[in-house]
Specification:
The structure is a homodimer.
Chain A: H1 3-6, E1 10-14, H2 20-29, E2 35-39, H3 51-67, E3 72-75, H4 78-91, E4 95-98, H5 100-111, E5 116-121, H6 123-128, H7 130-138, E6 143-148, H8 152-158, H9 164-180, E7 184-188, H10 196-203, E8 208-211, H11 212-226, E9 247-250, H12 254-265, E10 272-274
Parallel strand pairs in A: 1-2, 1-3, 2-9, 3-4, 5-6, 5-7, 7-8, 9-10
Helix pairs in contact in A: 2-11, 3-4, 5-7, 5-11, 9-10
Chain lengths: 286, 286
């Protein structure tokens, strides 16, 4: 692999701000790498939309990022990872990593091959059975339960991380999971790590929470090494989240994105631009 | 006005399912009229998006509906009514009625010209000050307060119309309004009538709730008469909501729309189709 290619950034897209939790995990683990993040805030959320629509949006986002020059693509959005990875891989010529495979494999590692594993996710992700499939591929003997938690995304975006209403809603959504008594619970939506404390208290301290973003960062680091794609350039000073080596794009409302980034990461992107991605899927090889 | 034109349907668009409450109000008041409803479910919600994006989406929806042949356009979405009416009127050659003007005027009628009026709405609608402007135009002496209620839309879509969490969240959002002691409270988002009981109990029985959809239906009926546009055809049998004289379009996930329509209206559209509206704004005269 030529040197120039190794110095390209890693692309990350998400339906909106939630993928910033995946960006944080990647940034923490890979201090030599630069990132380009695209949040499709003009069309968020994906979790209640259809397969065809999620595929189209995901292709447009992917083609936008590849047009900027990236060496690898991370699909941070769980819904897009669940529904659109095959289409994205067909359309672009670089490695594509979703969050579901890594999250599922990590859950099996933590719970053991005959472990009890729970998945909390959006409507579309649960219906897709993508986590169930990933977990069964890693271990056919794992015991599984899934729960849809549609209000978790708006609660996280409101910043209601310790309000009594959030606890009460979590009690409702996670009652089945608590009764099931899992060894591990996959946080199957990028927003859910924001509600980690509430979720942990609701299901009990003995349940291991799996952050798919962190699991993905581990696999991305391994893949960069295996493919000899890791950047050799060490940053001159200490990297910080959202510094000017990383570039952020949104399809709408940059100001609101900056505000929620502050809430999620404790800092606002230095480089943040609004862009239009519609039509980028026409660049596809299909 | 020629007979054929009078027999055209009335177009209605909304960012998603919420506008069905406006459709219901129009349908109840105008049994001779047929309706074409477009729910932009591929891009819902609008309430957290920017002016430029809401304008573009609203134009595309409007042009799609005019391309089908309509005699009047009702913008059922409060956010689109707040942000995009001037652009829509510039682009299409028929009467356009939003929900904010009628809702604001009705609030002043009910509260009196020196009355105290509260508005509960989405982030974008509150920030636009569109209700405040409409109310001040109807009465410069009205006293005003506004509150953003971002979780009301997902709560309504979840069908949580009497859960304790919904009451508790309403307490938080509406505490300022209750302390203000309004004569009337405008339900400034099409989803909010679904939560009418919770909202009424929270602010107190003496506060009159204004459903902008109902106020809009009254003004549409007057406008049809004034412009000699009312249909002269009486339906052969009794009309019912969602019968096959009315035609529903969504930009995504028709199945989910049908399910929520059932929850909102007690019936599912007989004629329901998924369409693509992107690019329809290019038909604009601009």
């Amino acid at each position: 692999m030529n040197q120039e290619h190794k110095e390209l950034p890693i692309g990350i897209f998400d339906s909106g701000v939630g993928g910033l939790t995946v960006y944080r995990a990647l940034h923490d683990r890979l201090p030599n790498e630069r990132f380009i993040y695209l949040g499709d805030t003009a069309r968020v959320p994906y979790g209640t939309k259809s397969l065809a629509t999620v595929e189209r949006y995901a292709l447009e986002n992917s083609q936008f990022l590849t047009s900027r020059g990236i060496k690898m693509l991370v699909v941070a959005c769980n819904t897009a990872s669940a529904l659109a990875l095959p289409k994205i891989r067909e359309a672009i010529g670089i490695d594509v990593v979703g969050v579901i495979g890594p999250g599922g494999r990590r859950a099996v590692e933590v719970a053991g091959s005959k472990g009890r594993i729970a998945v909390a996710a959006t409507e579309a992700t649960v219906l897709s059975n993508a986590y169930a499939d990933a977990i069964r591929r890693a271990s056919p003997d794992a015991e599984l339960i899934q729960a849809e938690c549609p209000l978790f995304v708006p609660l996280a975006e409101e910043g209601w991380t310790s309000e009594p209403e959030t606890f009460s809603i979590a009690e409702k959504y996670l009652a089945g999971i608590r009764a099931f008594g899992p060894d591990a619970l996959v946080l199957g939506c990028t927003h859910y790590p924001i509600l980690r404390d509430v979720i942990q208290q609701t299901v009990g301290a003995n349940v291991k929470l799996i952050d798919s973003g962190e699991a993905t960062a581990v696999e991305v680091a391994e893949l960069l090494e295996a493919k000899n794609l890791a950047s050799a350039t060490e940053p001159s000073g200490k990297r910080r989240l959202c510094d000017d080596l990383d570039h952020f794009f949104v399809t709408d409302a940059a100001e609101r994105f900056g505000r929620i980034a502050e809430r999620f990461l404790g800092s606002t992107p230095s480089k943040l631009e609004a862009v239009e991605v519609f039509g980028y899927d026409k660049l596809s090889k299909q």
